[in-house]
Design a protein that fits this description.
With 141 residues, the protein is of the alpha+beta class. It contains 2 helices and 10 strands.
Length: 141
């Protein structure tokens, strides 16, 4: 009886430990370089001029083009969690283009992005919110 009781009490701890180990953390340093933004909020981006984001992790800088306008920001990696970071509000040019919907969605995600995780495709990364929901899918250029 004691063994059964011990097993039943140990099971939640064991399952919790296993699930915690199942998600491999991605170091924010892997973001360094230029990435094409291929998906925003679950919708694939299909347009002639693809948006991109470039991270310069040694300088804590971020810049890119959201499809029409260029932007600049900074990134602050979390010292306690290698996969977490904060983006500062972006400064962007203010040109008007025929289709601003995708760009608007990209800019809306910037204040929600809190981290990075791996994608099934090793050449892509997922920029996620604080709950782990994918906001942007980026592909290495």
């Amino acid at each position: 009886m004691k063994k059964v009781l011990f097993f039943m009490m140990s099971l939640p701890v064991l399952l919790g430990a296993m699930s915690a180990c199942s998600e491999v953390k991605v170091d924010t340093k892997k973001l360094d370089g230029k990435w094409t933004i291929v998906e925003v909020n679950g919708t694939k981006i299909e347009q002639e001029k693809m948006p991109y984001i470039e991270f310069k992790m040694a300088e804590n800088k971020v810049h890119g083009n959201a499809g029409c306008n260029t932007f600049n920001s900074s990134i602050k990696p979390d010292s306690k969690n290698i996969s977490s970071f904060t983006l500062a509000p972006a400064a962007a040019t203010m040109m008007a283009c025929p289709n601003m919907a995708v760009e608007g969605q990209i800019f809306k995600t910037f204040d929600q992005i809190k981290g990075v995780k791996a994608d099934k495709d090793k050449n892509r990364l997922l920029l996620i919110d604080g709950s782990g929901n994918t906001l942007l899918v980026i592909a290495k250029q």
